[in-house]
Amino acid sequence: MNVISKPGLLDLLHGKPKDVQEEALAWYATAKKADWVSFAAVLGSFPDADLVSGLLVFNIRRNRYRLIVYPAFSGSKLYIKALLTHKEYDRKDWAQKWP
Questions:
Q1: pLDDT tens for the chain, residues 1 to 99
Q2: Phi, psi for residue 38 in degrees, rounded to 5
Q3: Regarding beta strands 2-4 and 55-60, do their DSSP bridges make them parallel or antiparallel, or are they unpaired?
Q4: For the domain bounded by 2-96, which CATH number is listed?
Q5: pTM, 2 dp
Q6: How many other CB atoms are found less than 10 A from the CB of residue 94?
Q7: What is the DSSP-derived secondary structure letter of residue 62?
Q8: Which helix (H) or strand (E) holds 81?
Q9: Helix (H, G, I), strand (E, B) or coil at 70
Q10: What ranges do the domains of the chain cover?
């Protein structure tokens, strides 16, 4: 998969705890090597991922953080949108930003 973008992910990780940074970068490495053509394929790598309003949501650090990604499976692309705490995610403000 073409994950867009690593610099964007690094910006989102700035100031986050080291364990969050490590797990998010491990997610990046796995996603970069993946060949996901559907949500079902994503579940093969990340069984706890969710599909919410067309966005992939990955749990980071045992659900303390949520990584939100827009998938374009037909183009083999993933667009990183947000890295939120569980509390920020629960407010659902993020869902209003993207179609």
A1: 999 989 999 999 999 999 999 999 999 999 999 999 999 999 999 999 999 989 999 999 988 999 999 999 999 999 999 999 989 988 877 777 665
A2: -165, 170
A3: unpaired
A4: 3.30.2310.20
A5: 0.91
A6: 19
A7: T
A8: strand 77-85
A9: strand
A10: 2-96
